[in-house]
Design goal:
Blueprint lengths: L1 H8 L2 H20 L9 H9 L6 H7 L16 H16 L1 H7 L3 H31 L15 H28 L4 H11 L2 H9 L3 H23 L1 E8 L2 E3 L2 E3 L2 E8 L6 H10 L1 H8 L4 H6 L5 H23 L2 H10 L2 E2 L7 H35 L4 H6 L2 H26 L6
Antiparallel strand pairs: 1-4, 1-5, 2-3
Helix pairs in contact: 1-19, 2-8, 2-9, 5-6, 5-7, 5-12, 6-7, 7-8, 8-9, 9-19, 11-17, 11-19, 12-15, 15-17, 16-17, 17-19
Amino acid sequence: MLTSILNAWKIPDLRKRLLLTAAVLAIYRFGAWLPTPGVDAESVRKLFDSSANTTVLGYLNLFSGQALQNLSLFALGIMPYITASIFMQLIVVVVPSLEAMQKEGESGQRRITQYTRYLTCGLAIAQSSLYVYIFHKGSALGGSNALPNLTIRAFLLIVLSLTAGAMLLMWLGELVTRRGVGNGQSLLIFASILTSIPLAISAWLNGDVFEKLSLPCVMVAVILGVVFINEGQRRIPIQYAKRSIGGFGSAAEATYLPMKVNQAGVIPVIFAAAILVLPPTFGKLFSPLNFLADWLAPASWASIVFEFILIVAFTFFYTAAVAFKPVEQADNLRKQGGFIPGIRPGRPTAAFLDRVLMRLTFPGALYLGTIAVLPTIFIKEAHFSQATARALGGTSMLIIVGVALDTMRQIQSQVMMRHYEGFLK
């Protein structure tokens, strides 16, 4: 990993990309501590210090990079944009007009991106309004009211500030994706979780002997498991027919189509984490839903089982609907003159790819869900601290390792592309 970064640093273009990415991450960390107008950060911090809120708000605070505990400018984090992006990717498959728009090429993709931004703004307004209500009614969560004298003017000012912070993060994430290194949104989530690692390490050092010895073994096993499933793939042989171009014939080519075991990446894990924080939050705020706060509290058995089911189900759905479309792959192979040996082009190829995809996705989804919940179960049964459970749990480790692997893979591909000289110099 260090070798790839050093090699990239020697290339001027990649050096600029790395510096831009580092600058965006620095701005993100600065905004995480920049106070929001009209908010008493000390009162908000006291609400987080109350033991009754460490399970609900602490989990939300993890994905905001510790910004929520101060209700700072970037308290919403990048999650509104992530949620809007996932929703748009799924709705494109369902709505024919959006699917046709996506097939228009770059112009259609720009319009879908614009719709995603509008949806992000709406989600940011709704989420910031909910946060203001949560901190205003802090007594309902077992703490003190962090915003006791809330007026309509103050409410609008805080909501507007938090929404503006979320939209700024959306722009910064897109900037990193276009001109930086890696996926900007994933890197912002990656940076958010990393900020909780020092607290988790401090809690681990203060633990007993069993915690000090067992936790590193669990973390190494999770990292190995994530690398194994992310790098695993099946290579489908592809044969291209002999073609004649400009009067010159070209020999038949043989290559392969890589089909990864985990086509969806960390998207199902992020989706499950975003869904799981909603029931406990609403359960604490509204008395008729109080049972949800205890039943689906983070690290509870019901929450662990529900997370596993969500990850497995969404992995199947996202892989088939978004990540890999057998019909489109078969159609592209037919147009390019390629075929799978022993399989007729067209529908038989699509059926073959769909069958292979299901066989790969089934163990991949189970494995992904297992890696996500097993460390959480171990930390729960071993009675480790809440800081350790949140920052070093299965969900956090999957996101950290998955994003790191994807970013390093992109850096390596950029280095190889710029060092490629071909046969003629």
